[in-house]
Amino acid sequence: MWRYVAGGGAGLAAVAAGVILWASRDTPSAAALPARPIAALEEGQASLPDTVPEASARTREEKRFGRYDKDRNGQITREEYFVSRRKAYAKLDTDGDGRLSFDEWAAKTNGKFATADADKSGTMSAAEFATTAVKRKPARAVKCPPAAATAEEG
């Protein structure tokens, strides 16, 4: 019988030690924290913001301006402004003659039609046409644990 009492006492001591160690991890010691920011907060000299600052519209516009201003002189010339358009045009002008034919302009659509026309009949059935629909990314589903699981864990 004394073995059960001694085992139960040892078990309770182990649980108590675990609780004490766990509780000591949640409260950081003063030595672990930097002294300067705490002193500044105590004196009221500095305070932490309540929200995280977001990029302003002006910052985004400055970034966009920087992408166009290739020579970094603070001004966008007509040539700098049209660089992205010239690159897009060059990708479409497959024969490089400086002119866009309808087939060059519609190359992506031609390829999409050819891929969808599985039986190569030159026409698309309703099922073939359904494959041309734009694939949209699904909204991110929030994965929450079932209510019963959270009550058991707590």
TrEMBL record:
Q: Which PROSITE patterns match?
A: EF_HAND_1, EF_HAND_2
Regions crossing the membrane: none
Location of the EF-hand domain: 86-115
In Pfam terms, one family for this protein is EF-hand_5
For this protein, the record's InterPro entries field holds: EF-hand-dom_pair, EF_Hand_1_Ca_BS, EF_hand_dom
Question: What protein name applies here?
Answer: EF-hand domain-containing protein
Organism of origin is Sphingomonas mollis
